[in-house]
Amino acid sequence: MDMNTEQIRLLRPGEFEAAAELADRVFRDAEHKSMGDAFPNAFSPALQQSYGAFADGKLVSFVGFVPSVIRIGEAELNVYSIGAVCTDPEYRGRGYVGTILDMIREHSRRARAPLILVSGNRGIYERFGCRKFGALTSFNADQQSLDKLSAATDGEETYRPFDRADWFALRKLSRSRNVGYEQSIWDLAAAIYAEPTASNAKLKHRVWVAERDGAPVAFAVLAVAGDIAPLGKPRVIEWAGDAAAAVRLAVYGARAEGAESLQFAVPWQDAGMEAVLAEAGCPAVPGKLTGTVAIVDAGELLRQLTPYLKRKDEAALSRLQLSTNEDGRHFAEWDGVSMELQPEELISLLFDPVRIESAVPVPAAEAASRLFPVPLPLPSGLNFV
């Protein structure tokens, strides 16, 4: 490469080690797990999806870009996640990340991935069209709450650490969720080993399984303290199966690991888990899902969500059209009447249980309430980027 030439492009297989080294310099200290190990799909020479900027013969800026499939009922939604975004301090202010985001928008359109999840919420992402979205409730189970949750067991479940013969059971429980990331056995194994969210807080994964009559009914992935001083408190990273059993399992596993408290992040659609935690008196803080989201192609998004939305209200769905033009402006059409929606209006319309005021006429808004919000899985779980 010409030492005086700047290049911005997809990384090639031999360049991901340098990308991980750059990310480690920006985000990690000596006790952290390397970003390359914690986020292997962002630094994957097999996927080759992430972008970089090169100057003076070296990689100076990086944007991790990872494809996933989210299942929502019968619908499958193609999504990308953006994370590990970093620039060498000596090369900041040159617009590299903004240029990469423009390239990513076009990449997503060609891939028919209408939704992009972003781990950050800086101004550059807002200009890209990202907004906060959805709703979750954060619960912090203290000692008193843990005692109450422990006492709530019906005595029919047994709790044990994950066994190497459990992979098929974990995959089956993962698939039982109505809303969740597509996760093969290999995906689960790789993500649990990588510890993406946990490693940020210098925590370690521990996996626990609940059984009833000898059959697994829930699993929980916990982030707990390991051999080094943690930067965060123990938390539930991901769970699947019976909600009440998963809560009791998580509490049992946390206590077995010596934790005195446990944090839960519960998306709005997980009402069963929320009810169990609320009944135990766990302090609750409402908020948004982690990070931000951008809609790249509203029409493609509606098309991919159609199998789910048809089951909710096919008549209302037939009257609605969404589109995004080449300039990135979003439009909704209701009974032949078209209106432009700002990014925050469209994102809120689709994903927020309590929507912001928008330009959608009252009749359309009432019909939309029969279709939306669309539930999304927790972005900060095992699939966090």
Report on this model:
The protein is an alpha+beta fold and 385 residues long. Helix 9 (243-256) crosses helix 10 (271-279). It is built from 13 helices and 17 strands. It is 34% helix and 29% strand.
Cα separation of the termini? 30 Å
Estimated radius of gyration: 22 Å
Mean pLDDT: 94
> In which range does the helix fraction lie?
25-40%
For this entry, what is the oligomeric state of its chains? single chain
Uncertain runs: none
SS-derived structural category: alpha+beta
Number of helices: 13
Number of strands: 17
Shape: globular
| Main sheet record | 7 strands, mixed
Please provide the ordered H/E string of secondary-structure elements: EHHEEEHEHEHEHEHHEEEHEHEEHEEEHH
Beta-strand percentage range: 25-35%
Would you summarize the structure shown here?
The protein is of the alpha+beta class and 385 residues long.
What brief labels describe this structure?
17 strands; 385 residues; 4-stranded antiparallel β-sheet; alpha+beta
Helices and strands, with pairings:
Layout (H helix, E strand, L loop, with lengths): L6 E4 L5 H12 L7 H4 L12 E5 L2 E15 L2 E13 L8 H16 L3 E4 L4 H6 L7 E6 L1 H9 L5 E5 L5 H9 L3 E3 L3 H10 L1 H5 L2 E10 L2 E11 L9 E7 L1 H14 L5 E6 L3 H9 L4 E4 L4 E4 L2 H21 L1 E5 L5 E5 L2 E5 L1 H9 L10 H7 L17
Parallel strand pairs: 4-5
Antiparallel strand pairs: 1-2, 2-3, 3-4, 3-8, 5-14, 6-12, 6-13, 7-9, 9-10, 10-11, 15-16, 16-17
